[in-house]
Design brief:
- The structure is a single chain.
- The chain has six helices and no strands.
- By secondary structure, it is an all-alpha fold.
């Protein structure tokens, strides 16, 4: 987990630097924006690593892990508002989309990066990510205990 954390932090720094230097991405509050985006990304890292650990704890066949992980991840990418506005989805689907962990993460990163919000100004996002983090840690530790 720590090696994945270090790798993801390095990737985050590289991606942000490329955005800043190559595409004129503006860090609204400078280093504060960078640190807040990095802190919010840590939630996503823990949540999605936990989901990966959960899947690998349940599935015994190594070749089945990637398709199952993609079955969980790809719909989130399509439904979280990353590519298409959630407001354009039907009402019944919008409620589901609003509860996805990636939706909380994308919304929070957008508010920090583009609107200049600080972490304390997005309490619903932080609460949603914290709930997902606790839920994933609980489910992941239980699945790993039962798989031993």
């Amino acid at each position: 987990m720590l090696s994945r954390l270090l790798f993801q932090v390095i990737c985050f720094i590289i991606i942000t630097a490329i955005g800043y230097y190559a595409f004129a991405f503006t860090l609204v509050h400078g280093w504060i924006t960078f640190i807040e985006m990095l802190m919010l990304s840590m939630f996503g890292l823990i949540i999605f690593n936990g989901i990966g650990f959960f899947i690998s704890g349940l599935i015994r066949n190594e070749s089945s892990i990637a398709p199952i992980a993609n079955t969980i991840t790809v719909p989130q990418i399509l439904l979280c508002g990353l590519f298409f506005p959630v407001e354009n989805y039907p009402g019944w689907l919008r409620g589901f989309c609003d509860l996805l962990p990636l939706t909380f993460l994308v919304d929070g990163l957008r508010k920090i990066a583009f609107e200049g919000a600080h972490l304390w100004q997005i309490p619903v996002t932080i609460a949603g990510l914290a709930i997902w983090t606790c839920l994933v840690i609980l489910v992941c530790t239980r699945s790993l205990r039962t798989s031993e």
